[in-house]
Amino acid sequence: DVKVTQSSRYLVKRTGEKVFLECVQDMDHENMFWYRQDPGLGLRLIYFSYDVKMKEKGDIPEGYSVSREKKERFSLILESASTNQTSMYLCASSFTTAGARRTEQYFGPGTRLTVT
Amino acid sequence: AQSVSQHNHHVILSEAASLELGCNYSYGGTVNLFWYVQYPGQHLQLLLKYFSGDPLVKGIKGFEAEFIKSKFSFNLRKPSVQWSDTAEYFCASYNTNAGKSTFGDGTTLTVKP
């Protein structure tokens, strides 16, 4: 079974702090994603990566950055946390088939971040 | 921009009722389509997917979905729901040109015993 783990289930930070959310997958997937999940808004893509040291902006990248130094690890960074970044953060991974099709995503348990 | 629209935010059914959750996507090119489910307190997981071929796809736990290209739709169905189907359901499309997925807002299904 694919396993996607996230470093924390719950996190409380203060406004202005730098926050690191870590995600690790154990299935050698090429593709990794960060989403935030808010009630009534579904999942919104923050950043994604299709290879080591590669990153692409998603739909809501403002206030976030990412790092992918190793294939299995994808970090989300909140440079200066703000209260409107209070949310559930989900990491996901997927692989690319021989026909260059990216498959379904496998999700981690999520990190519920509260910024006070 | 690519978008996915789910018709209902909250659906309440009694056990044994039939279910249909609507999903429409906006992109006219090649898309891969998915339904994911999130049971209370659990990870998001895949219910079913459509890439090509037979437009009627079957997933886990008796769910199925039909891809209708002319209507840009991918509705989820189950003939008889159970209390254990209570969950949030997300439709998603993957745009092969843009290289990213878009999720709908989700539909919360409550099944009353």
Task: Write structural notes for this entry.
The complex is a heterodimer of chains A (116) and B (113). Chain A is mainly beta and 116 residues long. Chain A has no helices and eleven strands. In chain A, the strands form two sheets. In chain A, strands 2, 4, 5, 6, 9, 10 and 11 form a seven-stranded mixed sheet that branches. In chain A, strand 4 (31-38) and strand 5 (42-49) form a beta hairpin. The mean pLDDT of chain A is 92. By secondary structure, chain B is an all-beta fold. Chain B has strands spanning 4-6, 10-14, 19-21, 23-25, 31-38, 44-50, 56-58, 64-68, 73-78, 87-95, 100-103, 107-112. In chain B, the strands form three sheets. In chain B, strands 2, 5, 6, 10, 11 and 12 form a six-stranded mixed sheet that branches. Chain B has a four-stranded antiparallel sheet with strand order 3-9-8-7, with no helix packed on it. In chain B, a hairpin with a 4-residue loop joins strand 10 and strand 11 (100-103). The radius of gyration of chain B is 14 Å and the shape is globular. The relative contact order of chain B is 0.34. The model of chain B has no long low-confidence stretch (mean pLDDT 92). The interface between A and B is medium-sized, with 24 and 23 residues.
Features:
heterodimer, A: 116 residues, mainly beta, four-stranded antiparallel beta sheet, globular, B: 113 residues, six-stranded mixed beta sheet, 12 strands
Compose a concise summary of this entry:
The complex is a heterodimer of chains A (116) and B (113). By secondary structure, chain A is mainly beta.
